[in-house]
Amino acid sequence: MKIALLGGTGDMGEGLALRWSKSHEVIIGSREASKGAKAAADYLAKAKAFYGDSMAGSISGTSNPEAAAEAEIVVLTIPHEFAASTIMSIKDRLNPKQVLVSPVVPMIKIEKGMVYSPIIKDGRAISYAESLAQELQGIPVVAAYHAISAKKLANPATILNYDVPIAGDDPGAVELVTKLTKEIPNLRPVYVGPLRASLMIESLTPMIINAAIFSKIKDASIAFVQ
Ligand SMILES: NC(=O)c1ccc[n+]([C@@H]2O[C@H](COP(=O)([O-])OP(=O)(O)OC[C@H]3O[C@@H](n4cnc5c(N)ncnc54)[C@H](OP(=O)(O)O)[C@@H]3O)[C@@H](O)[C@H]2O)c1
């Protein structure tokens, strides 16, 4: 499968590239094609060193529009301040057969800690993922990976005993993201409902960050316990 990581030169991009390149064609997108290519070469060296002969995928790098145009799955690994404008600027490179994955968490710093900052549209709070879906009519959007530590993801030797809440309206798109999630050792995908539920998923991340700030619980994530 071809997976584009827009803004893949950053922390989340590196982690997802290292995990998925074992079996997939990963394309790192960047505002500058040369930066995308450089990051891709760096990640590829790390992936090859870890997976050795069992590596069946690849990592290449280019500009965000080129990466998006080539891929079946497009992951928006860009901070919330710039993610929507980036995807909107390359909207014409997307098509309804692709799946857009949003791990984007809109949050703001307050005096002490972080708080969730949803998008307000027509007087009601909607998630970042919902606002993307409204803007990109026809392209299935799936919300996932909001609470996975990029640092831990970027070490392929680290086993992630976490759950990944997933929300989306398109069953085929959700199935694809579920499958990709299961490929990362020990991550358990948990479907939590239609895209409307992404409001709750996104809102958990600032709480997890606050647990690190105030209670010194570093790089925590989510697990449903029974
Ligand atoms: N970090 C985490 O642990 C974590 C965990 C879960 C979810 N997330 C979410 O994942 C997304 C990416 O997080 P991250 O930590 O990987 O971000 P990051 O490292 O801060 O940035 C990722 C990339 O965004 C691009 N970028 C920066 N400024 C930009 C601008 N003005 N316009 C367009 N692109 C710009 C840059 O790529 P180029 O310079 O190459 O264009 C950069 O490498 C965020 O939405 C975050 O909420 C992060």
What distinguishing features does this structure have?
12 strands, 226 residues, alpha/beta, eight-stranded mixed β-sheet, globular, two-stranded antiparallel ribbon
Round the mean pLDDT to the nearest integer and report it.
97
Number of helices: 8
- What hetero molecules are in the model? NADP nicotinamide-adenine-dinucleotide phosphate
Our measurement of the CA-to-CA distance between the termini, rounded to an integer number of angstroms, reads 34 Å
> What would you call the structural class?
alpha/beta
Which architecture per CATH? 3-Layer(aba) Sandwich
Q: For the report, how would you describe the main beta sheet?
A: 8 strands, mixed
Radius of gyration computed on alpha carbons: 17 Å
Percent in helix: 25-40%
Which CATH C-level class is it?
Alpha Beta
Report the CATH topology name. Answer: Rossmann fold
CATH superfamily: NAD(P)-binding Rossmann-like Domain
Shape: globular
Strand content: 15-25%
Q: Please indicate the count of domains.
A: 1
Structure description:
The protein has helices at 11-20, 33-51, 64-70, 80-89, 128-135, 150-153, 171-182, 198-215; strands spanning 2-6, 25-30, 58-63, 73-76, 99-102, 107-109, 114-116, 119-121, 124-126, 141-143, 163-168, 188-193. The chain is of the alpha/beta class and 226 residues long. The protein has one domain: NAD(P)-binding Rossmann-like Domain (Rossmann fold), CATH 3.40.50.720. The strands form 3 sheets. The protein has an 8-stranded mixed sheet, with helices on both faces. It has a two-stranded antiparallel sheet with strand order 6-7. The N and C termini lie far apart (34 Å). Bound molecules: NADP nicotinamide-adenine-dinucleotide phosphate (NAP).
